[in-house]
Amino acid sequence: MAGEVFAMAGASKVHGTLALNLESSVDRSLALVRPHGCWRLRLRGRSPIGWRRYAPDLGPNAPKDYVGAPKLVLEVLSDSTEPVDRREKLLSYRRLASLEEYVLVDQNKAWMEAYRRTPAGWVQEVYGSGESVRFTSIDLAVPLAGC
User: Fold this and answer.
1) Cα dihedral angle (28, 55, 53, 43), rounded to 10 degrees?
2) Whole-angstrom Cα distance, residue 120 to residue 69?
3) pTM across the whole model
4) Per CATH, domain 15-146 is 3.10.450.50
5) Residue 28 confidence class, pLDDT cut points 50, 70, 90
6) How far is CA 109 from CA 14, 31, 55, 65, 145, in A?
């Protein structure tokens, strides 16, 4: 980051499994309404301390320009990444003009936190066990239990 190299441990089995389950759930649901899928993104964003390159856990596939202009980014929280996901990435991603939703997924419980851009600014919605998560940017609802 910013010319510095940081050693990071690989994702835990729980983190990887949750990301894969989420990807499968969204991918299956998207396949019913449009010929897109999910994929891993690589984004460049400006943080309070300079430009950073991020690799979010998940983003839906869409037209070619989506790679540089995502509407939706999902991050699976782990103990080691949560502070960066909640602060640095949230601030950085919100600066992307195309971004409509930034979603944090808890790996330890059935819980998601969605930040959505509205005309009045960013709003937060929290989803728990038994609820369906609505990704408004891609007009899709996915049961939290399916993730």
Assistant:
1) 0
2) 21
3) 0.71
4) no
5) low
6) 11, 27, 23, 34, 11
